[in-house]
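Final report, closing paragraph on structural work. Over the funding period we assembled a curated collection of sequence-structure pairs, and we close with a single example.
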Amino acid sequence: MGNIKAKQVRVYLQPDEVQALDDLCKASGLKETVILTILCASALRAIKKSGNKINIPLNFKLTEEAN
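Its predicted structure, as stored:
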């Protein structure tokens, strides 16, 4: 996987999701792209860790990670 390049994707959000994203941007001071990248990367890592099993809807649990 050494030569995989970053990829741009299009995401469609419902109005309530757009509002939640806007609220998170304002509260955190982060840009939409940063927040969506963090969310997507975290979700994909969790799915991979579970053996690529995916339960719909996804449920998230926020935890403090040690660096």
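The CA atoms of residues 11 and 36 lie 9 Å apart. The mean pLDDT is 89. We thank the funder for supporting this effort.
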